Amino acid sequence: MQATTKGRKAAYWTTTGLLAAGMLSGGIAQLLRTPSTTQGIVHLGYPVYIMTILASWKILGVAVLLLPRLTLVKEWAYAGFFFLMTGATISHLASGDKPGDVTAQVIFVVLIVLSWYLRPANRRLAAVTKLPD
After folding, report:
1. Residue 90, SS3?
2. Of 19, 39, 126, 131, whose CB count within 10 A is highest?
3. How far apart are CA 124 and CA 75, in angstroms?
């Protein structure tokens, strides 16, 4: 294995591990409806029940990213995380939070993009060369 391949693999697992840890811990906090997550959701103007939906998606998305195979579902998980965290960033800014208050959300967006970009070939969809007639 070449040094660049090893470095890319290490970067993939580092970004994916950080992403998974953050999404899992956030999902658990939302599932448990901790006071800080509940206050955050209410501050943004969303109903509290949305935390159960978001938590379920986060936890399932983490499982999909970490499990082998499931390449099509991984693409959906990455897309879901991307929409979730860019939406969180916009929601915070729209509710009057300062740009510095969305640092965590922006870091997660970067982790999502890096993890997706660095994923190994066995975690990517096969290229579609011809669509069925």
Report:
1. helix
2. 19
3. 8
Give pLDDT tens digits for 89-123: 999 999 999 999 999 999 999 999 999 999 998 88
The model's pLDDT over 1-58, given as tens digits with 9 standing for 90+, comes to 566 789 999 999 999 999 999 999 999 999 999 999 999 999 999 999 999 999 999 9
Classified as helix, coil or strand, 9 is helix
Strands (E), the chain: none
User: CA-CA distance, 50 to 31, in Å (whole number)?
Assistant: 10
Angle between helices 35-44 and 50-66 (to 10 degrees): 110
**How many angstroms separate the CA atoms of 133 and 54, rounded?**
38
Distance CA 133, CA 115 (A): 34
Residues 6+ apart with CB under 8 A from 51: 30, 31, 33, 37, 38, 41
What angle do helix axes 71-94 and 103-118 make, rounded to 10 degrees? 160
DSSP labels for 20-41? HHHHHHHHHHHHTT-HHHHHHH
